[in-house]
Amino acid sequence: MGRVTNRYRVVRLAEGGAAERPDTLAAEEPLEIRVAGRPLTVTMRTPGNDFDLARGFLVSEGVVARAGDIAGIRYCAGATRDGSNTYNVLDVVLAEGVTAPDASLERNFYTTSSCGVCGKASLEAVRTVSSWTVGDDPVELSAATIVTMPDQLRAAQRVFDRTGGLHAAALFDVDGELLCVREDVGRHNAVDKVIGWALDGDRLPLRGTVLMVSGRASFELVQKAVMAGIPAMAAVSAPSSLAVDLAREMGLTLVGFLRGATMNIYAGAERISDDRFATV
Hints:
The protein is an alpha/beta fold. It is 22% helix and 31% strand. The protein has two domains: 87 residues, Ubiquitin-like (UB roll); 133 residues, Cytidine Deaminase, domain 2 (3-Layer(aba) Sandwich), CATH 3.40.140.10. About 2% of the residues have low confidence. It is found in: Cytoplasm.
């Protein structure tokens, strides 16, 4: 398994002068995901929870929806010239009767750690169709509970404490209990790892839950939440306009700028109650 972090010698410049010191950085390595031996995508990720990443990616792409849709996942040997295993190539075997990904899903080159959509082979492949409907989820959320989520997420970011360079995603229940947290250099990978964890436990659809992300709320992250049946998503930073449009279209509750005791509700405000103020 690859390292989650790497150590480097760096030169630190400060008011007192220059000094050489060690620094810990988040690891970034390519992971090729194959389905039945056929390459599907290469994503730049932080090693760790790779099987969950593959599971979540396939959920996000609409290939699988239940734990039983995957017959097995394994690292591929012989990934290098000397035949050694780099732990950077995964092969997913789908269960009998599960349709393999259409060629239109294949990524042209690779998925960067900053974007999981831009490698799609066609514009038509950007939108995926979910097996679940989030708009009819009757979940009720308390603003007082939602505002506790960023601090819980931050406290669970163990690798971030050492590197300061990782995104994180977490899944909470309606009572604010932290169910799962994952870190990665790619925000989309962190979300896929959470969804993959849920798929492995046969928890989809994730009704009555909130997805919390450490950065902004992009179109692709909202889409991943919808694909997993998550009815609400909260982000520390801003959403994009397309993310808001998709959230409103799909009936997903979307919160942005969740900082301290404040937040902006961009979609699905009817699900969130706050006893401190009258409902807008």
